[in-house]
Specification:
Oligomer: single chain
Order of helices and strands: EEEHEEHEHHHHEHEHEEHH
Structural class: alpha/beta
Radius of gyration: 19 Å
Strand content: 15-25%
Largest sheet: 6 strands, mixed
């Protein structure tokens, strides 16, 4: 497989503070990569740099063989990077079907998308997406009536509708029930059969359900990489992340 994303010697400084510090990272096309790390490790900045929201102070980000420097967020999205934020961003007054119809229309004109005649191919795509995200039964109710987890799935479906080559998914199970968390893991594992995906998450049980390769960030750089067992047994990870979380739990108790 070929590299879809390569980050080399990348540093991002904000008024002297290095949010990312000489970071090197790469992933193959078709890979599902999970990113973990303590608060302040640079995870959000990591996503910001890929999407063009933040420009590097030093280093390069190469996506599909192209240096993303100087490309706008909009251009990077068009080039094949889709990002899902922690809080679902869906049109609450529209139905899931209408949200997906809007996402399938590259013009992004709401009225034009909802009132234009759809092709049979688009209709099949939307029906398939509704099945994938588990919202067939709720396809025609207002999205505002969906549970938090269902809104998360809808936004993931909206991203997939835009045919990205790389999906960036930020903490998809925060605030979800155990059942919704399980279903989200199933959804991402299913999408990983046809997409490259980066997932940032704190819920370690969820990470174990989806993890093939895990990257641990600490102080803006890669601390450790490997499968879940390798990462969890690494003394450095235990000290700065897993062990730290246990200490906090003990103090809370």
């Amino acid at each position: 497989m070929s590299k879809i994303l390569e980050i080399e010697n990348l540093t991002v400084s904000f008024d002297g503070f290095k949010a990312l510090n000489n970071l090197n990272f790469s992933m193959e096309a078709g890979e599902l990569r999970t990113i973990i790390g303590p608060n302040g490790a640079g995870k959000t900045t990591f996503l910001d740099i890929i999407t063009g929201k933040v420009q590097p102070t030093e280093g390069t980000v190469t996506f599909k063989g192209r240096n993303l420097a100087k490309m706008s967020e909009h251009a990077i999205a068009r080039f094949g990077v889709g990002r899902k934020f922690q809080t679902p961003r869906v049109y609450l007054n529209l139905t899931p079907r209408e949200n997906l119809e809007l996402s399938c229309n590259r013009s992004k004109n709401v009225l034009g998308s909802l009132f234009r005649k759809q092709s049979s191919g688009e209709r099949r795509t939307i029906v398939g997406l509704l099945e994938t995200i588990g919202l067939v039964a709720k396809a025609d109710i207002a999205a505002g009536l969906l549970s938090h987890g269902e809104k998360q799935w809808l936004e993931i479906g909206m991203l997939v509708a835009q045919s990205p080559d790389l999906l960036l998914v930020d903490e998809p199970v925060a605030g979800l029930t155990d059942e919704e968390t399980f279903q989200t893991a199933e959804l991402l594992n299913s999408l990983a059969q046809s997409h490259s995906i980066i997932v940032i998450e704190h819920d370690m049980e969820f990470v174990r359900e989806i993890a093939r390769q895990v990257t641990v960030l600490h102080q803006g750089t890669v601390l450790c990489e490997g499968d879940m067992d390798t990462v969890q047994s690494d003394p450095r990870v235990i000290e700065v992340y897993l062990g730290h979380s246990e200490d906090e739990e003990d103090e809370a108790a």
